Amino acid sequence: QATLSVTADKEFRHCRECGRLLEISKEATTGGRTNLRFCSDACRMRTYRRRTKARQLLGQGWTLRRIAKHLDTKVETVRGWVKKSPR
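Structure (tokenized):
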């Protein structure tokens, strides 16, 4: 597997939610697309719920530091979540 990952056009990155390793490649059977950020729909939805909760708490007057502690994440992450406008 290590040899294949070096010889093939593969890249590895971590899931933004749980940190699990993701394989990014052009292989249809094992590789994920190049813009893959999460290992599963569960992780994608967990991040979405945390992001919307952060925006809700900011609207209630919570500080970024308090929100980060409540959601068990970094202040920089919360700042990015609340700065971006919802789609």
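The beta strands are 10-14, 21-25. The radius of gyration is 17 Å.
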